[in-house]
Amino acid sequence: MLPESSSSPHHHENDAVKHENAAQASQRSFSERVKATGTTIVHHAKKHTGVGIVCAVAYFDP
């Protein structure tokens, strides 16, 4: 499967969504942005921490 070219309609839609999200982010309060950032960090930690622990145990306990 070939990658989509940058002239595809989906590419422009994604740019529009990013622009809209950036505009919305600038209108949100500081506490809302902190909460959204914290939620993202916690989600990332939940998703990746378990894999890291399994890999560390597998490395040190062959």
From TrEMBL:
Residues 1-32 are annotated as: Disordered. Residues 10-21 have a biased composition (Basic and acidic residues). This is Uncharacterized protein. The lineage of its organism: Eukaryota, Fungi, Dikarya, Basidiomycota, Agaricomycotina.
